[in-house]
Design a protein that fits this description.
single chain, 149 residues, mainly alpha, 5 helices, flat
Length: 149
Amino acid sequence: MLLAAMAVVGYGWWASGVHPFTWRAQIAVGIPSAIAVAVIVRYEKRISRFYRANMAKEQSEKRSRIIGQEGVLNRGVAVWVALLGAFTVWEVIGLLAGGSSRVLPTFSDLVDNYLLRLRLERFVLFILWLWLGKSLFTLFPSRQGTDVK
């Protein structure tokens, strides 16, 4: 496990040092993506069986959490919808203003100028991206097909 963690850290450090939109950057993103596709293809039948078996139960539980007794949206969902709407309006206005505006920067401008300046920041974001992908795969069922790791 330690060797795998060291490999991920080394890979993340290498990938965070490549220049964007180059063939090396494409490879840096392509390797984890190819691994993800290979895992999905390899375990597709087990994954499908697991989700078909649990979908009806999970959908009814989600529906009861999201929709209240009168059929109105839960306040938490409404807040997230409002935040997503405000974010979208901000992005559209920023892009219509020509992008790269100092008055109303787009999210891409903020990320480029504040989160991707240093290699360490890019490294941390790349490791977080890999961790998110790994955590999505841990939702898949185990070999027995009954529990989720």
